[in-house]
Amino acid sequence: MSTVEDWTTQVTEPQASEPLVVDDQDRQVFRVHRSAMTSTEIHRAEVERVFGKSWLYVGHESEIPNPGDFVRRKVAGRPIFMVRGAKSGNINVFHNSCTHRGALVCRRDSGNAKVFQCFYHAWSFDSEGRLNGVPDRQGYSKGLDYDELGLARVARVESYRGFVFASYDPDIIDLPTYLAGAKDYIDLVVDGCGGSVEIIKGTNEYSFNANWKLLVENSADGYHAQSTHDTYFKYLVFLGTELQGGVIGQPVKLGNGHAVIEYSSPWGRPVAKWEPLFGEDARGEIDRIRAELVDRYGEERAHKMAEVNRNLIIYPNLIINDIMAVTVRTMFSPTPDRVDVTAWELAPIDEPASLRERRLDSFLTFLGPGGFATPDDIEALESCQQGFEGGGVVWNDISRGMGRGPMANDEEQMREFWRRWQQQMGTAADRGGAR
């Protein structure tokens, strides 16, 4: 094969001994075999090797501020729940399964409870996971061990700046080491919100027909913005926003598969860049926030907080987009061609009502279920998945920017994700399927 084009289009049958991810630094070519998004065998392997061996986002401490507060989640397809212990005050994350016969013990998405009772046989557990009630206790032998039959904890749980992560791997490295350079960008988000943040109540949940890795790519893809979201940019111009000079920025590799694109903001930000969308009465308030950031952190860091966007990938499936609002998003594919998405909005605690209203409006206008961006993105990613089904072309090209110092609309952030994915998958990501 003498040309890249030959390599890209003429391969019709994958070779079982070759990797799905081809990273050719000499030729400045990066390819991902499309079976990574379509193969059932690959999907089964990544559930074990990627999701079973990584730190996964569960929720935020602000969601359970009081003893007994809980939220129910699926994390990598597994039912769990997070509860603040009534006695210890600790964040507890349990597998959502009764130790008697397996039924769910937490059956609401959120709330406060002193006891979690299994509806099947009424075994009950407290917020620390201890078994504390068994109907007809005398019907059991003396060997019934209440301590042994407490709720099963997820193997590892740690938090960073209020973001709670869990891992199903008891031997995984500690969370700060795992997060590596991503910690600095979480710090920018939290400090830019005054140091204390909360998840606003309510979630944006949706599903569509594509693979989860496509949404990870898209969430930090500056290349598609102008073409796919052209209507949004025209809307901003109509309102009087000045979009001059293009987007200036770069992708940054953060280690362990994490990466970010940071770029000058072409739109307003509640923290703290005014635009006409916010209205004239908001100018003074936003200027005050900007001045407070300068006093606290200095001009350079305040500029990054107020006027620079961040689309952050925390490997494998957490996205924090600090753009016209701060969105926290996770995704998981129960099958190779379907993805379930949950998104939350992050905001400063005790934010004035006027600012909160603008923040939520910004979030919904661009990223909400009926916003300018989300329907566009879903259409694009479903279209990709449909294109994979046709065959003929078997490689995705993710080479943009390899031949130069990368820019914000290049693809180095995606390459960093795929390198870590290939490393975790090992021979299970050889072309020809998992072995």
Automatic annotation (TrEMBL):
Pfam name, any one: Ring_hydroxyl_A
Domain Rieske residue range list: 56-166
Organism domain of life: Bacteria
Entry coiled-coil feature ranges: none
Matches recorded under Gene3D superfamilies: Naphthalene 1,2-dioxygenase Alpha Subunit, Chain A, domain 1, Rieske [2Fe-2S] iron-sulphur domain
Gene Ontology molecular function: 2 iron, 2 sulfur cluster binding; dioxygenase activity; iron ion binding; monooxygenase activity; oxidoreductase activity, acting on paired donors, with incorporation or reduction of molecular oxygen
Keywords: 2Fe-2S, Dioxygenase, Iron, Iron-sulfur, Metal-binding, NAD, Oxidoreductase
InterPro entries for this protein: ARHD_Rieske_2Fe_2S, Rieske_2Fe-2S, Rieske_2Fe-2S_sf, Ring_hydroxy_dOase_asu_C_dom, Rng_hydr_dOase-A
PANTHER family tied to this protein: 3-PHENYLPROPIONATE_CINNAMIC ACID DIOXYGENASE SUBUNIT ALPHA, CHOLINE MONOOXYGENASE, CHLOROPLASTIC
Family listed: Belongs to the bacterial ring-hydroxylating dioxygenase alpha subunit family.
Protein name: Benzoate 1,2-dioxygenase
